[in-house]
Each structure stands twice: as structure tokens, then as C-alpha cells.
């Protein structure tokens, strides 16, 4: 699936994302609607408020819009979907149950899951709202489109880099997935987002966990470490993760 084909940054005019962007740009963005506590403003102003909000303010703003959604505010619902489109695109490219599908079909599934996540968001969760929205959408996709049994596990470093870079908003959730690799990736994403692990630690742990014995020897040589030292280092990183997961009342998943 081509990144240029689906990315919202490209503002493409073809396919589902293109149609949604066109609708937003030409109809919704210039129109004034009531967006709850944000007031009677244009869609462009409302989207700018969401996307430029600082970390301290973001949870409250998104939670307020989600409250509006559950009160029946369809304008707030569409606003949130537009704000989360890029994350839906990332999910369509990275979920194992979708990557074998045609790109537009995968996008439809991912956008639908994000829309459902917005409509059914549990309002008692008032922190890390964006991350929870993304994770709820991921869980919907995992349940409705599990990975094919014959799809091989990815083990290249580029796969880890791509997924970590694509989706950094996985926050407070129960670590659970259809495959050990997906569980590992969820833990890694959560750990990098919260600062539990550095990018280097996360990448090393990911590579170590999915590598064969021969690949571990190669990794140790690449890093200038002995085989035993590499194993010890990976164990220390895992121990750090277990401690952080326990402190946040999260399941250990594949750890």
C-alpha cells in the first residue's frame, strides 16, 4: 500500500480519504456550527483547536467533544473523525488483519472502526483520550478482522520503525492482541509514548524478541556486544517494562 496513496497530509482527492478531505475543506471547514464548549465557530477553527492543543489541554478538549457526541452532536462527531483520520490511515497500513487487503478496503475498515470508537467512547476515561480512541479502534479492528493464520510474523527492524513512527498515541489500555508480535508492538508503543523506554531500547527489545538464535548473534555483533551481554540487556529492558506496566495496572501481555 503506497503511503502517498493514503496519507491525509497529501490531501488526495481520490478514494475515501480524499472524499472526506474534500467534504471537510469545501463544506464543513468554512461553515459555522456549535461545537459545545468551543462555541459557535467554523469547522476549520474547531479542528485547529483540537490539533494544536497542548498536552495539558488536549484531554479536556477531546473529552468535551466526545461528551457532545454522546449528546447527539453530529458536527462534533465529524470534527473528531477528521482530527483522527491520520491515525485511521496508520491503522489501515499497520494492522495485520488489514495489510493483505486492498488499500481502499482497509481504509474503509479503519475509518469505520475509528468512527465507532468515537461514538462509543467510555466517558469515565478522562485521561490520555486520544490514545484511548486509537486503541479502541485498534481493538475493534482486531476483533472484526483478525490476522490471517498464514500471514508470517514481521521481524525486520524496518517493520518496528514503521509502526513505532506511525502510531505513538497508544496510552492507557489492557495489553491484549491476537498474536504475540502485536502484543509486543502495543507494549513498545505504549512504552515509547510514556517515556518508559527510549526509542533505542524499544527497537532493541523488539528486534531481540522476534529474532532467531542466528539473528540474535548478528544483532549482538552489530551492537558490539557479546551474546550474553545482549541477552542481559534485553532482560533488563523487559524488567523495566514489567515494573511500569504493573505500576499502571496493565497486563503484561507477551512479556
Which helices and strands appear, and what pairs or packs with what?
Elements: H1 3-6, H2 15-28, E1 32-34, E2 40-42, H3 43-52, H4 55-70, H5 74-83, H6 85-94, H7 103-119, H8 129-144, H9 157-166, H10 180-194, H11 199-210, H12 213-223, H13 227-247
Antiparallel strand pairs: 1-2
Helix pairs in contact: 3-5, 4-5, 6-7, 7-8, 10-11, 11-13
Defining traits:
single chain, 255 residues, mainly alpha, two-stranded antiparallel ribbon, 13 helices, 2 strands, elongated
What does this structure look like?
Helix content is 65%, strand content 2%. With 255 residues, the protein is an all-alpha fold. A two-stranded antiparallel ribbon has the order 1-2. The longest helix is centred in the C-terminal third of the chain and has 21 residues, at 227-247. The radius of gyration is 20 Å and the shape is elongated.
State the gist of this model.
The chain contains 13 helices and 2 strands, in the order H-H-E-E-H-H-H-H-H-H-H-H-H-H-H. With 255 residues, the protein is mainly alpha-helical. It has a two-stranded antiparallel ribbon with strand order 1-2.
Amino acid at each position: 500500500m503506497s503511503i502517498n496513496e493514503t496519507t491525509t497530509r497529501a490531501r488526495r482527492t481520490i478514494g475515501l480519504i480524499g472524499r472526506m478531505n474534500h467534504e471537510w475543506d469545501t463544506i464543513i471547514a468554512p461553515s459555522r456550527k456549535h461545537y459545545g464548549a468551543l462555541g459557535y465557530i467554523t469547522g476549520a477553527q474547531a479542528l485547529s483547536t483540537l490539533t494544536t492543543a497542548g498536552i495539558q489541554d488536549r484531554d479536556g478538549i477531546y473529552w468535551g467533544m466526545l461528551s457532545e457526541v454522546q449528546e447527539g452532536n453530529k458536527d462534533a462527531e465529524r470534527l473528531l473523525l477528521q482530527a483522527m483520520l491520520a491515525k485511521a490511515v496508520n491503522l489501515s497500513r499497520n494492522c495485520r488483519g488489514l495489510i493483505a487487503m486492498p488499500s481502499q478496503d482497509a481504509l474503509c475498515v479503519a475509518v469505520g472502526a475509528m468512527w465507532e470508537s468515537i461514538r462509543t467512547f467510555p466517558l469515565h476515561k478522562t485521561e490520555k483520550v486520544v490514545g484511548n480512541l486509537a486503541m479502541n479502534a485498534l481493538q475493534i479492528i482486531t476483533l472484526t478482522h483478525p490476522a490471517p493464520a498464514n500471514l508470517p510474523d514481521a521481524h525486520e527492524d524496518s517493520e518496528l520503525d514503521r509502526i513505532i513512527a506511525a502510531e505513538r498515541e497508544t496510552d492507557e489500555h489492557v495489553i491484549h492482541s491476537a498474536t504475540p508480535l502485536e502484543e509486543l508492538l502495543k507494549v513498545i508503543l505504549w512504552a515509547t509514548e510514556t517515556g518508559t523506554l527510549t526509542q533505542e531500547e524499544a527497537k532493541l527489545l523488539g528486534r531481540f524478541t522476534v529474532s532467531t538464535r542466528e539473528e540474535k548473534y548478528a544483532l549482538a555483533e552489530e551492537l558490539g556486544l557479546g551474546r550474553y551481554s545482549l541477552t542481559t540487556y534485553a532482560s533488563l529492558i523487559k524488567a523495566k517494562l514489567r515494573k511500569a506496566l504493573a505500576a499502571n495496572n496493565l497486563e503484561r501481555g507477551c512479556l
